[in-house]
Design a protein that fits this description.
heterodimer; A: 199 residues; alpha/beta; 15-stranded parallel beta sheet; rod-shaped; B: 104 residues; mainly beta; nine-stranded parallel beta sheet; six-stranded parallel beta sheet; 61% strand
């Protein structure tokens, strides 16, 4: 059975086009196109909404997102304003795209793992930092590696311990665990000494 | 062959207007306006008001039909709705329920 559908040049559709067949669009569709077969938008064809299918070939214009199960191919003369998502994407010379283009199966995989890695990293580093409360000297060692944050006001004190803690603080803010103690590990009376020095 | 074919397995929900002939093997719901003519083949379903040139039906139509030309209900056709046309033929084996209005 030939499940061929052609939307000819002189045709305008305002509404949804759905189904389980291949679709060739030479006319105008102002509505969503969602088929399980292949979609071809010929030159002169226009779709004003999202398009999804197995293989999407564009030679015309699309104002909406393209999402294919297999392949999106933009050929010469294609104009797409919208995001493209498919395992494989080909954009030929002369194909115009304005939007986010993403290849690969999982849609939100990469940004998610990236942010997770960022969160995990300081958590690992924090482990050695937290316990040696009394000895501030080793604390300063991992800190510069952790985050080269421009030294905040506390660092003016020129004591190594507060600097380390201050630098680590923004990193902790990213993680979801209980917030670490913000109070710098100062010796008793150090604060008073600083105050006196400032005066 | 008509340049526009709505194949079997395709459903259009909305308004379709065409300057050329349309062949319907799938489903159209909404409104259909085809000046050059419409052919609803066996298996095709149109649940819409139709304004067209010549109309040939072997499938199912639910909706009012206004044709500037001939309306042809072939055997196996099932039409529910009023038909307004200049000429009409209803073949043996076609089902039809509705009024016929012919310009005289």
């Amino acid at each position: 059975m030939a499940l061929l559908t052609v939307i000819g040049r002189g045709v305008r559709i305002r509404g949804r086009v759905t189904g389980e067949a291949d679709l060739t669009i030479e006319g105008h569709i102002e509505g969503e196109v969602a088929v399980s077969g292949d979609v071809t938008i010929e030159s002169g064809g226009l779709v004003g909404a999202n398009v999804s299918g197995r293989v999407i070939v564009v030679r015309g214009a699309v104002r909406g997102d393209l999402e294919a199960e297999d392949l999106v191919r933009l050929e010469e003369g294609a104009r797409v304003v919208g995001d493209i998502r498919a395992p494989r994407i080909a954009i030929a010379k002369g194909g115009l795209v304005r939007g986010h283009v993403q290849t690969g199966g999982s849609s939100s995989g990469r940004p998610a793992t990236a942010s997770r890695a960022k969160v995990e990293a300081p958590a690992v580093r924090r482990a050695p930092v937290a316990p040696p409360r009394q000895a501030p000297a080793p604390v300063s060692a991992p800190a510069p590696r952790a985050a080269p944050v421009p030294a905040p006001l506390v660092a003016k004190s020129a004591v190594s311990a507060p600097r380390a803690v201050a630098a680590a603080a923004p990193a902790h803010a990213v993680s979801k665990g209980p917030p670490p103690p913000v109070v710098p590990a100062l010796k008793k009376g150090a604060k008073a000494a600083l105050k006196k020095k400032a005066q | 062959m008509a340049s526009t074919v709505i194949g079997a397995g395709i459903t259009i929900e909305g308004e379709v207007s065409a300057d050329d002939e349309i062949v319907v093997q799938g489903t159209i719901r909404g409104k259909l306006d085809a000046r050059e003519g419409v052919t609803v083949e066996a298996g095709g379903v149109v649940e819409a008001d139709i304004v067209s040139g010549p109309l040939s039906v072997a499938g199912h139509i639910t909706g009012n039909i206004t044709s500037s030309d001939k309306v042809e209900l072939q055997a196996g056709a099932r039409v529910v709705g009023n038909v307004k046309a200049t000429r009409i033929t209803i073949a043996d084996g076609a089902q039809f329920k509705g009024n016929v209005d012919m310009d005289v």
